[in-house]
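Collaborator request, handled under Task 6.
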Amino acid sequence: MQLISIKRSLFLAMFFLSGFVFAQDDDPIDSETVVVIKPYTPSVGDVFKIKETPPSGDSLGIEKKEVEYHINSVPVASTFEPAKGRAANLERNRTLDVYNSYFTLGFGSYTSALAEFYTNFEISKSDNFGIFLTHNSSQGGIKDVVLDDEFYNTDFNLNYSSRNRDRTWRAQAGVKHQLINWYGLPEELVLPETELNTIDPQQNYLDIYAGVDLALEDSFFKNGKFDISRFGDSYDSAEIHAVLKPTFEFEIAEELITTTLTADYLNGSFEDSFFENEDMEGLNYGFLSLGLNPSLLILRDDLTINLGVEGVYSMDMENSESKFFVYPKITASYRVAGEYFIAYGGLEGELQQNSYNKFSQENPFIAPTIGISPTDRQYNGYLGVKGKVASNINFNFRGSYITENAKPLFISAPYTIEMDNRNNYDNGNSFQVVYDDVKTMSFFGELNFEANSNFSLGLNAEILSFETANQDEPWNLPDMKASLVMDYQITDKWYAGANVFYRGERKDLRIVNYPIDPSLFLKNLDSYLDANAHFGYRFNNQLSAFVRGNNLLGNNYERWLDYPVQGIQVMAGATYKFDF
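Structure tokens returned to the collaborator:
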């Protein structure tokens, strides 16, 4: 093999050498054509594969038997008949008809009457005009009361509202008339019948009011309100009260700044004096308060903080005095567990403008000659928690501590045994207002339960403790307040409801001016529980009837000293809805 390789190498060398030699020849190289008769087509040979069904190599062969199948058809009787498909009927809840007007009329014991009328006219899709009239009265008849004790309460209101994409505003005007009687003669005062017949205990209050509310969208002016009223009585007392309160809103560095301006003007006079035999002149009063309240709203996930402060410049125009007050306006809340547990707190103060109108609504038996002064609520600090025990049970618990300077307290007016030209309210049957610095600590709790749309129940209670600076007691302030409200839609036709309220013990002071020495009598007013209920039946969407019961426990308790209330009161009436 080695010899053959050597020979092959020599042959190849001689071949290339001879080619080189002949290539040096001057003869040209002829071109040749190579014809390929059959192209080379490579192919891949078969590779051994495992067959899908390899041949059996078992020496024992079992012969398969052929199996024959026979199907016997047996007819079966069928009663199935296919029905044609159709759409299912959906039950719709019947929508209640909505009416733009209603009228209520009721009559009851103590010759009481109730009348209400309301109507609303749709001027356009965005404008509405409403009229509301309500009247509630009783001819009296309280047990052991010797003077007239009837009362009237009538309110007539007109309002116009407009709402569109950019603004919402509402204007209203009305007149309110109240008639009361100073029927609460003290038990220590024994007057002959001839003198009793000379007492005319009737007092009338007349309030004429108007106001405008305005709110704008996409504007630095957020909202504003203006209210004005003229209040007077049967004794030529007169009072003008006007309040202007605009609110502006700005966004600075992605934070919301809200600023509220307040202008509060009060001017009034009492033409009468409490002791006419001393030749005292009437009382005049006038106050103007200007306030500025900027605040910063901070929103951070579950935390909400409102940091604000209010400066108030108050002028006593009658005495030419002025004061400047600064109050905190801080509130915060934190969602510990969403809507189920929210912790909140605050520190807030304000200058509260007292007025004759305000006092008469709290205690209608006040004398028409009282001192009027604003209350300096330095701060109200409170901490609380609110949320939900379940989706239909809400709770709210709060503790607070309030410091107030010149807080008004109602106290029984003194009376003099020997007095000439005695007024109708000079018989110990009216109330005066005294002012004192008071600190109040309170604990408040509230639960609201709504089983479904047909039943709801709410109850709350508050325990209060007072500390006075100059007065011996916090006159006529209760140490506890509680209430319960329930509504129940029994069926589509029947409905019912109840409300119960409780007031704790209060204290008052009776001052009797004898010819020589005055006498003081500390009076305790017992706590009381007042239960009220109502039932109703709807004949149709337009007509319904009701029965109401007030003071169902029948207690002639004293809301104010020597002023017992009516016993069990029952009233029946009907309500009719309609369209003009």
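The cover message to the collaborator said: "The chain is about 5% helix and 55% strand. The mean pLDDT is 86. Please let us know whether this matches your experimental observations."
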